[in-house]
Structures are given as structure tokens and as C-alpha cells.
Amino acid sequence: MGESDNLSSVKHIIVILSGKGGVGKSTVATQLALALRNEGNKVGLLDVDICGPSIPKMLNLQDKEVFQCSDGWVPVFVDKEQTLGVMSIGFLLHSSSDAIVWRGPKKNAMIKQFLRDVYWRQLDYLIIDTPPGTSDEHLSVVENIRQYNPDGAVLVTTPQAVSTGDVRREATFCKKTGIPVIGLVENMSGFVCPHCSECSNVFSKGGGEALAAQLDVPFLGCIPLDPQLTQSLEDGKNFLDLFPESATRTAVQKVTTAILEQVQKKVTE
Ligand SMILES: Nc1ncnc2c1ncn2[C@@H]1O[C@H](COP(=O)(O)OP(=O)(O)OP(=O)(O)O)[C@@H](O)[C@H]1O
Ligand code: SF4
């Protein structure tokens, strides 16, 4: 396969970053992709978390294999209408417990191939989920998408992580590499009771918003820690469709709207 240019038919590229592992980066990427799809967009979700690809399981696609056509790898579609396509290193593993321990150059070549050689066709949004931190893999992602004028990065944090330097490092990484920051999302913000759906703030409130103000980046909103969301992700079920009335769904929707507003602002600037 020669050098492909599949990203040129993607209208908007959004990268999801987090300083620490386990803060819900893949969860935010998945729910954002589903919410954008529900609004009538054609969406692609690219999981470049080479060390721990979790997206196939979250979307109940873990047994799928990917195939190549003359234009590149064909993504796995969540729906038969083909409105949400997914590509993950997880599809190339024989077993979900296979560890991928590739060294730098091989990883970077794989990321480059992932970014260039997936045959997305026309997409409104491509959401790229990355590994935690700021590593060589992130640089590979940035270098390979720069020419396509990405909309920017969504930084994900949790109330416990706001006081650490991780998010600041992410913001500095974006600045240094010239990737605009779309904004900051505070995930696992408060706990939704599975019995009465009341949301309790386990940690003090407002840390994410204050940090966004300090970093001078937009605050995109909070998503609560919701056991029904955890269970849906575990079972590979679509939480947004299963719990249309839930406060967490409303929160995901608000974050999605805030992201779209920022993306739109950039387009009209
Ligand atoms: N808002 C939430 N409500 C309920 N469960 C959540 C929420 N966000 C994340 N989780 C759960 O927390 C766990 C970690 O989430 P996730 O895999 O999205 O984190 P990550 O930051 O992508 O981790 P990694 O370090 O593997 O990249 C998962 O089991 C997920 O289901
Ligand atoms: S939030 Fe309400 S239902 Fe849930 S544990 Fe507390 S009192 Fe009980």
C-alpha cells in the first residue's frame, strides 16, 4: 500500500489527552463519539492507546477483525448504517490479554500507519484516543495530523487529579507542539447514586473549572461517576441510548455541545 491520504476527507479532528491513566479518557472519547453520531454526524473513533486499547470492549467490538482494501484498513462499524467507525490496535490482537510491548520506532511506525491508512471515507469528526501522559506516541500523533489542521485537544482530568501537575504538562505539550486546546473536561465529578440518581460531590467541587481558568483554556463541563455508565461500558452497551433521562447523559450532552461551540468558534475565526 502506498502513502495514503485518508485524513484529507475528515472535516474535524479532535484528540483526547489526559495526564494520568484511568481518569476516563477512553470513556470520554467513546461517549463523545456516540453523542456526535446521535446528532447526525459521521464519526470515526481511532484508539491509538497501543499499551491498553479499551475502546473495542466498551463498544462490544472486541471479537471483530479488520480487513484491508486497496485504500487502506476498513474500520469496524458500530451500526449497519455505518455512521460510527472504529479502528483500534485491539482489532489486530489475537487475544485481548496480549501485551503489546513494541519499542519506540515500531510503535511510531504503527501510529503513523494508523493515522494515514484507515479508509474512513467522508467523516465529520475523527476522535483520537491516545495513551495517558505525553510520550513519543503523542508526538507521533501530533506530527502526523498537523498538516490536516486538527481542531485541537480535549484534556480530561478528575477532581482528585486537578491539583497534580499532569494537566498542566498536557497543556504545555499542546502549546509546544502547536495543537490548540479545545478545553478541559472534569470526569468522575461527583457520584450518581444508583438507587435515587442523586449526585453527591465526594471531592470538593469546582477544581476543574478553576484549573481551566488558571490555564486560560475553556472549561467544557463535568461528567459524574455513574455506576450505570461503568456497567454499560463493561457490557459494551450504549449508555446514552439505554439511559436517555439520566443526569449523566445530560452532562455528556453538555460537554459535547461545549466542544462543538469551541470547534465552531475556531472555524469562524
Ligand atoms: N464518568 C464515569 N462514570 C463511571 N465509570 C467511569 C467514568 N469514567 C470512567 N469510568 C470507568 O473507569 C475506568 C477507567 O476509564 P477509562 O478506561 O475511560 O480511563 P482511561 O483514562 O482511558 O484509562 P487508560 O489509562 O487505560 O487510558 C473504566 O472502567 C470506566 O468504565
Ligand atoms: S443518595 Fe439517596 S438512595 Fe442513594 S444511598 Fe444516599 S440516601 Fe440512599
From TrEMBL:
Q: What are the entry keywords? A: 4Fe-4S, ATP-binding, Cytoplasm, Iron, Iron-sulfur, Metal-binding, Nucleotide-binding
Q: Does the keyword Chaperone apply?
A: no
Q: What InterPro entries does its record include?
A: Mrp-like_CS, Mrp/NBP35_ATP-bd, NUBP2/Cfd1_eukaryotes, P-loop_NTPase, YlxH/NBP35
Q: Record's Gene Ontology CC terms?
A: axoneme; centriole; cytosol; nucleus
SUPFAM superfamilies with a match to the protein in the record: P-loop containing nucleoside triphosphate hydrolases (SSF52540)
Q: Can the keyword ATP-binding be found in this entry's annotation?
A: yes
Record's PROSITE patterns? MRP
Task: Tell me how the cofactor is bound.
Answer: Binds 4 [4Fe-4S] clusters per heterotetramer. Contains two stable clusters in the N-termini of NUBP1 and two labile, bridging clusters between subunits of the NUBP1-NUBP2 heterotetramer.
* A GO BP entry: iron-sulfur cluster assembly
Location within or outside the cell: Cytoplasm, Cytoskeleton, Cilium axoneme; Cytoplasm, Cytoskeleton, Microtubule organizing center, Centrosome, Centriole
- A single Gene Ontology molecular function, please? 4 iron, 4 sulfur cluster binding
Cofactor(s) the protein requires to work: [4Fe-4S] cluster
- The UniProt record gives the binding positions of ATP as G19, K20, G21, G22, V23, G24, K25, S26
The superkingdom listed in its UniProt entry is Eukaryota
List of residues binding [4Fe-4S] cluster? C193, C196
Give the main localization category.
Answer: cytoplasm
Assembly description: Heterotetramer of 2 NUBP1 and 2 NUBP2 chains. Interacts with KIFC1. Interacts with NUBP1.
Family annotation (HAMAP family): Mrp_NBP35 (MF_02040), NUBP2 (MF_03039)
Q: Which purpose does this protein serve, as stated in its record?
A: Component of the cytosolic iron-sulfur (Fe/S) protein assembly (CIA) machinery. Required for maturation of extramitochondrial Fe-S proteins. The NUBP1-NUBP2 heterotetramer forms a Fe-S scaffold complex, mediating the de novo assembly of an Fe-S cluster and its transfer to target apoproteins. Negatively regulates cilium formation and structure.
Question: Hey, which family's this protein in?
Answer: Belongs to the Mrp/NBP35 ATP-binding proteins family. NUBP2/CFD1 subfamily.
Q: What is this protein called?
A: Cytosolic Fe-S cluster assembly factor NUBP2 homolog
